Amino acid sequence: MIITRTLESLDQPFPIDLSPGSCVTVGNFDGVHLGHRALLSLTLERAAATGGVPVAVTFAPHPLEVLTPHAPPRLTTPETRLALLEASGMALVLLVSFTPELAALPPETFVRRVLLDTLNMRELLIGYDFTLGKGRSGTPEVLARIGKAEGFRVDRLEALSVHDEVVSSTRIRDLLRQGQVWEASTLLGRLYSVQGEVVHGKNRGGRLLGFPTANLAPTSAMLPKPGVYATLATPSESAGSGLPAVLDPTAPAPDTRPAVTNIGYNPTFGPGALTVETFLMDFDGDLYGKHLEVAFLERLRGEISFTGPEALMEQIRKDTDQARKIVERAASGGKGATAPLTPV
Hints:
With 344 residues, the protein is an alpha/beta fold.
């Protein structure tokens, strides 16, 4: 279950029995990537071994959005992040409203107010770079000292590496900025995707070019580097549970279609606003007002300004042929099977 609390309402009772004590992991969990999932799995293991309740504590908005004017873009929407945390097996996901007042708490006060008094915490599980409290002063060493005094155990998980890459939200964002979406997926443990409502665009794709595209409304999640991508697109009537529709390209959702997605400014028709336009192969239907998730497999090329619609149409045909081959390859094991892409 997912419960939201403010600092002032933390003492409200939970609809779950915490009397056995809890095993708690705390973090921003931006992306819920393989490193996060290893920490969540460890929390579940420790809870099973001790008879405790597995709990994940996270924050909204992201602390950096409160503490700095230059917060990096998010890898998941708030809804998707919470859905992934809940799907990991946590008995409770506690979403705490992050405010300047919360940020100002010393680590001792944060632990007592948020974790001990509220959750009856018996064990705290943290990532390799975790800190909490005022000025990030709650380092693992400080937390271990508090735990010794207060009677709870602190376990710190070392950094997780995949193919010599340390798994982190920062590294995943770097890869997305470079358009290396498959490489990002190997650190996420699933395809990177964005979701949103299908809205009306300029109608050039179908009317002028013969390739009708679904235009995605602006999303709060980070977009990969502008360009043309081989993707998997999954339409639905509504936003649904928040879980990604495509967790594994070898076993996509039944309604998933191979697709080509352009992120860019449509330079052939003059500069415009940044858009996300997706052509769904093997699909004939009206998507306006529906929800669409676009999962990225591979970047095909950058945006190009063509001499006219005919040259653009020819390139789109080539993009579509190439994208279909990439989708088929992913369905049979991925881009060189560089890493397993498994459901959460």
